[in-house]
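Per reviewer request, we include the raw input and output of the structure prediction for the construct analysed in the revised manuscript.
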Amino acid sequence: MRLIFLGPPGAGKGTQAARIVEKHGIPQLSTGDMLRAAVAAGTPVGIKAKAVMEAGGLVSDEIVIGIVADRIEEPDAKKGFILDGFPRTLAQAEALDSMLASKGLKLDRVLELRVDQSKLVDRIIKRAEDARAAGQPVRKDDDPEVFKTRLAAYNRDTAVVGPYYEQRGQLVAIDGMQPIDAVTAQIESALTAG
């Protein structure tokens, strides 16, 4: 099962991806984590990434795709994987499709959590309050101003990725405004549909 989770920040992608990981035993792949691991392991792609990052630059799509390509070859990803937060742009989506095709693979589903963006800031504020009340650290990106910046970047760069997969018949829209368990049920239904 090879999946992509799309949706704006605060839509619940991480929560739902964790549930799929637990139920189906496939890894959730974060490009940030993969970059750090490739740099630490000193892989050829990791060495390229390290040089770019040390120079203060953004890692190119080519390097990120190379890191994803290496990571999905690892034993724990043989049954499948979840890409969360990637692809972030149309160019990355096209490059990902080409890379998967070169390996004889394809995506099984692209799940897009659709939410009312006007209610997301309230959701983020509540998440921060809940974390504080539970004595847990508040995520840096749960600051309303940081969140608004991330949301603007999503709308500018990433919102076009959903329609790309929709045109290819791979996108399943999920109502992300439902209670968490209802979202999970809708996702499970999408995963088991023919």
